[in-house]
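Recall from the previous chapter that SMILES is a line notation for molecules. Here it describes flavin mononucleotide.
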Amino acid sequence: MPTRDAMLAVVDQFFDGPADLDRLSLMSDDVEWWNGIGKFPAAPGQTVFRGKDEIGRIVLGRAPSPRQPNGRHVDRYDLSTRSFADVRTIVDGDHLFRQHTYRATTMRGRPYENVYGFLFRFDAAGLIDRIWEHWGTLEAYETLFQGPLVVHDPDLILQTTPSVRKRLDLDRPVPREVLQECLELAVHAPNGSNQQPYRFLFVDDAERRAALADIYRSAMADFIDRPRTDAAEDNIDRSDEASKRVTESVMHLAAHMHEVPVLCVPIVAGRTDGLGAGAHAERTNTFWQAGRWGSVVPALWSFMLALRSRGLGSAWTTLTLLREREVADVLGIPYDQWMQVGLFPVAYTIGTDFRITPRRPAAELIRWNGFRTADEA
Ligand SMILES: Cc1cc2nc3c(=O)[nH]c(=O)nc-3n(C[C@H](O)[C@H](O)[C@H](O)COP(=O)(O)O)c2cc1C
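With both inputs in hand, we obtain:
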C-alpha cells in the first residue's frame, strides 16, 4: 500500500501539477472514473468512464465536444485561470478524499465556481485506480455544457416572460447572431402545412428605428383618441395600482421606442382583411384568419421565450397596425401580400429576475365538456 505522503503527493500533482503534466500518468491502466453528472456532451447518460483513453477523451476533455442539440458549442473552463479554495483532505487506508471549491473562468469568459469532492483509491504501485467525483452537477451542467442561458427551467420560462418595457437595456447592443440563434429555435414552432409563411424583419438601423417609433407614437395617439363603444376593450378600468403601473410602463416604452437597439416586425404572407391581392383578397373568414395568424404567432412566442432564456426581452405591441401602411412604406413590405403582426422591441433586460406574470388561474378559465358560465361549471 502506498504511504500517506505518497498518496498526498499524487493528488497534489493531480490538481496543482504543471499544465503540461499528463494527468493520465498518475493513473493505472484499468483506472475507472465515476462522475455522476451523466451529461458529458460527448457521452450522454454515461457516469462511469473506464481506461485512460476514454478518460482522456471525455472526462479530461481532449476531444472536441459535439455541438449540443440546440446548436450551441459547449463551453469549458480555462485551466490557466483555475484556483482552489477551502481544500480539505482526509486519508483512510488506500483511499484519499479531497474537497475544495474550484474557481475558473470559462473559455467564453464566464465565471465558474463549484464545490467538488474527489475520493481516490490507490493501487499497490501508488497509482490512482478509481476516482469518485462528486460535484454540484447542476452548476456544472448549466455553466459548462448549456451555455449562458439565464433561465434553464422550461416551467420558469413560461411563467416569467413578461412584456418588458422599462427594463429594456437601451445601452447594450444586441449582436445579430443572438437574434439569429433565438430565431433558429423559434422556427420549430407549428405553422400551416409547414410552409413557414412568415418573415422576421429586424431593424437595427437608427433612422429606420426612429421612423418606426414615430409611427408607434402616432398610432398610440390615434388609439387614445378613438371613439369609445360599449365593447369590453373600450371600458377597461385602469384605476387600480397595477393598471396604473402598466399605463406608465406603456408610456415609457413609447417615449423610448427609438432607443431600443432592435425593433422586430414579424410579417405573415396573405392578408385576411380583404385588402389583399390575389386569392387572399376573398379569404377573410375565421378559417383563413386562424390559418394566417396561427402560422406566425407560435414562432413569435417561441422567439420571445428564447430571448428570455438568453437574458433578452421584448414586449408584444400591436399599435402600429393602426398605421400598418406607414410601417410597410418604411420597410418596403408589399402591403397587399404581407400582414404585419406588430412591433417588437428587442433588448437585453436590465437584470434577469422577473416575477411570475400575474394571471387568472387556469381553473377559472377551464370548462369541461362544453361551454358553460363559471357558476354552471
Ligand atoms: C395582442 C397584444 C397586443 C398588445 N399591444 C401592446 C401595445 O401596443 N403596447 C404595449 O406596450 N403593450 C402591448 N401588449 C402587452 C400587454 O399590455 C401585456 O402583455 C399585458 O399587460 C400583461 O403584461 P405582462 O405580460 O408583462 O404580465 C400587447 C399584448 C398582446 C398579447
